[in-house]
Amino acid sequence: MNMNEWFLRRFFWLLTSIMCRIDDRQVSQIPARGPWILVTNHVNVLEIPVLYTRLRPRPISGFFAAYRLESIWMRWLLHAFGGIPVRRGEPDLRALREAVIQIRSGAIFALAPEGTRNPQGVLQRGKAGVVILAQRSGAPIQPVVHFGDVHWQQRLKHLQRVPFNIAVGRPFRIALPDQRVSGQIRQAITDEIMMQMAALLPEEYRGYYAGRHPTTQFLQYLETAEQDSKRLN
Predict the structure, then answer these.
(1) How far is Cα 168 from Cα 36, in angstroms, rounded to an integer?
(2) Helix, strand, or coil here: 21?
(3) pLDDT tens by residue, 63-121
(4) Buried/exposed 30-64: b ≥16 CB within 10 Å, e otherwise
(5) Which burial class, exposed, middle or buried, applies to 223 when counting CB atoms under 10 A from its CB (0-12, 13-18, 19+)?
(6) What is the DSSP string of 77-109?
(7) 8 A C-beta contact, residue 111 and residue 102
(8) How far is 191 from 158, CA to CA, in rounded Å?
(9) I want to staple 83 with a disulfide (CB 3.0 to 4.6 A). Which of 19, 45, 78, 141 is the partner?
(10) Residue in 139, 134, 123 with CA at minimum distance from that of residue 203
């Protein structure tokens, strides 16, 4: 851990602890290191420093929109966080390759399958990039969602602490079918992953996946995150 990262972690830990009332008791269910993929919902910018500081000292990485590099401040901040810039709206093979390298080297990679944030906090339909990343890296997947922080700006304006609840689900692997994995199958797998996330959220935040029960046609649960992490290493 370099000095920039140490300073940012301490600063954002203190800042988010003051701003938020954080329930992070389930974070202990996440292994100490990868190869591992975390799938999460994307609501607002608050989730980035909260999740980052609560997951460290685990080696964490993730994608961020490449256009943010236009800001000198954001460029420094995101590089300090170890993020990978990705071009939106097009296949970014360079970013995918770098993510696979980081995961295989022992990183825990956080990914929002929705591909964009929803300020209302309801899930949108997931995109199949998470399946491709899991296929190429061979890493297990674990859902980690958060809720309660939808109206965080209004709460802070009224000097109220923001509730931020973190829920962690069971880890699993993708059990690929024997036939060729088509785009349709990838989307079906993605939907199963998203339903695992939805099951951890209150009903009003499940969005596209509301009323749907999780299925595991293409998923295989692991016994424990710790056991599978030890086996991989």
Answers:
(1) 14
(2) strand
(3) 877 766 566 666 666 666 778 888 776 677 888 999 999 999 999 999 999 988 888 89
(4) bbebbbbbbbbbbbeebbbbbbbbbbbebbbbbbb
(5) exposed
(6) HHHHTT-EEE-TTS--HHHHHHHHHHHHTT-EE
(7) no
(8) 38
(9) 78
(10) 123
Cβ-based neighbour number of residue 126 at 10 Å = 26
153 contacts: CB under 8 Å, gap ≥ 6: none
CB neighbourhood size of 208 (10 A): 15
Residue in 30, 3, 77, 162 with CA at minimum distance from that of residue 39:
30
> Which residues, in sequence order, are bridge partners of residue 219?
174
Written as six digits, the tokens of 222 are 């692991």
Bridge-based pairing of strands 141-147 and 162-168 is antiparallel
- Rounded distance between C-alpha atoms, residue 171 and residue 231, angstroms: 14
What are the distances in angstroms from CA 196 to CA 5, 60, 72?
32, 22, 37
Token representation of residue 204? 């009003």
- What pLDDT digit, counting tens, does each position of 215-226 carry? 999 999 997 544
153 alpha-carbon distance from chain centroid: 22
- The mean pLDDT of the chain is 87
> Residue 90 is encoded by which pair of tokens?
């097009």
b (16+ CB within 10 A) / e for 153-183: eebeeeeeebbbbbbbbbbbbbeeeeeebee
Distance CA 104, CA 59 (A): 12
DSSP code of residue 161: P
